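README: folding subset

This subset contains proteins for which both the sequence and a predicted structure token string are available. Records are stored as plain text. Below is the entry for Transforming growth factor beta regulator 1 (340 residues), shown exactly as it appears on disk.
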Amino acid sequence: MSNAYGTTNYSGTYRNKDYQENLLYKKKLKRLKKWIKNLVFENSALCDQVADMQNSLAVSKEERLMLVKKLNLFQGEIEPPTLTTKTQIGNSNSPVPPIEIGTPKKTVKKRTPTEVSVEAKQKPKKNSKTARKVVQLIPLDVHGRPIFPISLGDLTVFSLGDVVADKPAYHTEDLIFPIGYCSTRAYASLKDARVKSLYTCKILDGGFKPRFEIVSDSDLDQPLVGSTPDECHWRLLSAISPSLSSITPKGADFFGISHPTIQNLIQSSPGTRKLANYKQQKFAIKKSLSDRDTSPATEEENDPSLDFTALHRHYSLTSVYPAIKQEIPNDIIHFQGLLS
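--- output ---
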């Protein structure tokens, strides 16, 4: 009897040990799961931190490029002088005269005074004062990016768009046509040329060639479309009045993509270095009042194809002249013919 009781007691204690070990392993398993869960959360937090660092690094690179371009605008690009290197051939005991490595010197032929005078007459004199593209100062944000909209007189730019590098028709030697470019300009209305209207100019993706659109705020359903900015501007002038079709269109100026300030911002956009035909333009920042004479704002104020006031001033003068000529009496005209 006592033996049976001892065996049952031994089996109970053995089962109790197994139970205690199972509880211990369960606790260890819970700890491992909790530890793994914390590691997963920590890993995701580190991944987010790495992504934020990469974004801040990209922003800092863009800021550095903008600062370098501003520094080049203020100070100009400094070209390092060409240095001629000298090498010696042979041992130190047997010195050999140094050899200059560089461009060979050209033999200069002496010219007689008569030849110099003839060449001076043939070569035209270059103007010392060349027209510079003056960039106006615009407000920038903390990262050095322009704050939109950019107001430049009658021209207001709302978006610079994206530069397309893989399509040659979206740029020329001196102009870039970015997709998504949007600007507005005040000009004569389509319905009444005496009234000022606001036109929205857009550059859209037209496939092989860009699509230029000019939309009037008085007629939003009928945009004026062209494959070039000049064609689009000519359609606008013809739609306002048939007499305006004789004016030379200036589509790039009307859109604003040829304005030095806007052109400089488009040229600073990413992807312009990959353009095959475009030649990088040089700009100067407006520092003094003397630069006002070369600014495009003064030229637009006197251009009837771009300025509303200049358009009315031009056509009021041309319309008054034939009316005055008709009011001159025939006797005075006959008298002027006798005097001549």
